[in-house]
Large-conductance mechanosensitive channel (Microbacterium rhizosphaerae), 136 residues
Amino acid sequence: MIKGFKEFITRGNVIDFAVAVVIGAAFTAIITVIVKSLIDPLLGAFVPSGDLGSWTITIPGLFADAHIGIGAIISAIINFLAVALVVYFALVMPMNKFKERQARKAGVSETEEEPVLTEQQLLVQIRDLLDKQQQS
C-alpha cells in the first residue's frame, strides 16, 4: 500500500499539478490585489457609487428592494481575465516556446496529419482497393 502511494506521488504529473496549483494560487492573490487596488478604483470613477465593488442595481420588490451587486460581478470577471492573461503570458506561452525549441533540437518535424475519414469515405476506399485487387 505504501509503495503504491509512493509511486503515485512521485509521478511527474502529480507533482506538476501540485506546483501548478500553488503557482496559480500565488498569481491569483497578486492579481486580486492589483485589480482591487488599481483597476477597480479607476473603473469606479465611471460608476454612480464611485466604487466598482459597491455598485449595485436596485430592483423594486413587493416587500423590499432587491440589490444586484453588478460591480462585484464585473470586478470578478476582470479579476478572472487578469489572472488568465498573466498565467497565459507567464507560463503557457513560454512553455509552448520551450517545447517547440526542444522538438526542433530533437529533429521532430511537425507534419500535417491526414484528415480523419468518414465511415462512408473509408468504405469507398476499401471497395476501390478490393476492385483493384480482383482485377490483378
Remarks:
- The first strand starts at residue 57 and ends at 59.
- The longest helix spans residues 70-106.
- The radius of gyration is 28 Å.
